[in-house]
């Protein structure tokens, strides 16, 4: 979600297309889909599930890698020794339906180094499998850390809690979410079973105090990560809700549904602030899409941590990278963003400031 002024709006530029290295017999067969794409929190690695049990972990950005522009911008990784030496191919043993990369936060807020004598002290890659298992791999070595068992169906999504703790939340088609302690070798802490249909996605607020989970039957649930009880049930979608994400300042929550709408909520009050249609890159200030990508058979997408690049996964196991319009944040948005990182909607409404300023700070106006 972008709350800034586009400086060069227009169509995104497709600058790279990663293609799985597999036999032609496996092309376009069931199981070849890319269901997950993810950047590491520091932006140094990218992972994608390229179908048929395989996840590839590659360094990012794609330095020293050539792009063959005569072949639909197909990226040639295999011919570059520098890239090849650092990329890892991981066979998960089952089809991969969800993946994410997370890292614990050290005392100074930076990412700690990998410690070979302890599990989950550095960045980890979580992979959700068809049989309900979760395999976690060390980044960048691709060493298997542990195999978490408990879900009874496909594991579809993950969210990391990286404050003084380091925990993993998993969402599954078995209608549950599970919370695992990665500092205790993946110990299961909580099972959340309030969904009545498949759970498609989950997301953690930037302050790590709230968890959003979405699923079948129009369900959008907000949880406390302190008590793991439901704070609110948000109603407004007319179809299965398949994705959710918080804004960087935690003041907004976006949910996407098969009803073709994205709803932007205030996660503190549960109020629906706006509805957006179709898959586009939107400016919240104008409530209009600023760019439209010519993407066919898309299944998933994610922005790079530093912005400027959108990665999309497709049904044929490919990943396409797009450059998107650079934006110049307004001074008002910079100030609002700083305030909302530490202030709830209720706290803003108690401030002794003009009504129009309050409406701006709680995203009722732009």
How does this model look, in words?
With 366 residues, the protein is mostly beta strands. It has helices spanning 81-86, 331-340, 345-349, 355-361; strands at residues 5-6, 13-18, 37-39, 45-51, 54-59, 66-68, 74-76, 88-91, 96-102, 124-129, 134-138, 144-148, 155-161, 167-172, 177-181, 187-192, 199-204, 210-215, 220-224, 230-233, 241-246, 253-257, 261-265, 272-277, 281-283, 288-291, 298-303, 309-314, 319-323, 327-328. It contains 4 helices and 30 strands. The strands form 9 sheets. Strands 2-29-28-27 form a 4-stranded antiparallel beta sheet, with no helix packed on it. A 4-stranded antiparallel beta sheet has the order 3-4-5-8. A 4-stranded antiparallel beta sheet has the order 9-10-11-12, with no helix packed on it. A hairpin with a 5-residue loop joins strand 6 (66-68) and strand 7. The radius of gyration is 20 Å and the shape is globular. Residues 1-9, 65-82 and 113-119 have low confidence and may be disordered.
């Amino acid at each position: 979600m972008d709350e800034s002024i586009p400086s060069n709006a227009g169509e995104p530029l497709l600058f790279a297309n990663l293609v799985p290295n597999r036999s032609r017999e496996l092309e376009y067969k069931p199981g070849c889909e890319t269901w997950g794409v993810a950047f590491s929190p520091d932006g140094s690695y990218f992972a994608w599930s390229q179908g048929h049990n395989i996840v590839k972990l590659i360094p990012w950005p794609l330095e020293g890698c050539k792009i063959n522009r005569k072949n639909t911008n197909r990226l040639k990784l295999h011919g570059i020794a520098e890239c090849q030496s650092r990329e890892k191919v991981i066979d998960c043993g089952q089809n991969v339906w969800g993946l994410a990369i997370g890292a614990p936060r050290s005392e100074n807020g930076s990412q700690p180094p990998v410690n070979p004598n302890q599990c989950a002290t550095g960045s980890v890659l979580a992979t959700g499998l068809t049989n309900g298992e979760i395999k976690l791999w060390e980044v960048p070595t691709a060493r298997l850390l542990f195999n978490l068992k408990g879900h009874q169906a496909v594991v579809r999504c993950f969210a990391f809690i990286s404050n003084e703790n380091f925990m993993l939340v998993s969402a599954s088609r078995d209608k549950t979410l599970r919370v695992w302690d990665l500092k205790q070798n993946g110990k299961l802490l909580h099972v959340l079973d309030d969904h009545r249909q498949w759970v498609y996605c989950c997301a953690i607020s930037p302050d790590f105090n709230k968890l959003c989970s979405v699923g079948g039957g129009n369900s959008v649930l907000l949880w406390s990560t302190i008590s793991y009880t439901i704070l609110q049930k948000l109603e407004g979608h007319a179809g299965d809700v398949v994705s959710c994400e918080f804004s960087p300042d935690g003041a907004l929550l976006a949910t996407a549904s098969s009803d073709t709408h994205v709803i932007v909520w205030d996660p503190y009050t549960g109020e629906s602030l706006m509805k957006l249609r179709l898959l586009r890159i939107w400016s919240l200030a104008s409530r209009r899409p600023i760019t439209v990508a010519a993407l066919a058979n898309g299944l998933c997408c994610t922005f790079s941590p530093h912005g400027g690049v959108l990665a999309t996964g497709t049904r044929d196991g490919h990943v396409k990278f797009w450059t998107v319009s650079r934006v110049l944040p307004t001074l008002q948005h910079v100030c609002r963003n700083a305030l909302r990182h530490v202030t709830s909607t209720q706290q803003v409404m108690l401030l002794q400031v003009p009504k129009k300023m309050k409406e701006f700070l709680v995203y009722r106006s732009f």
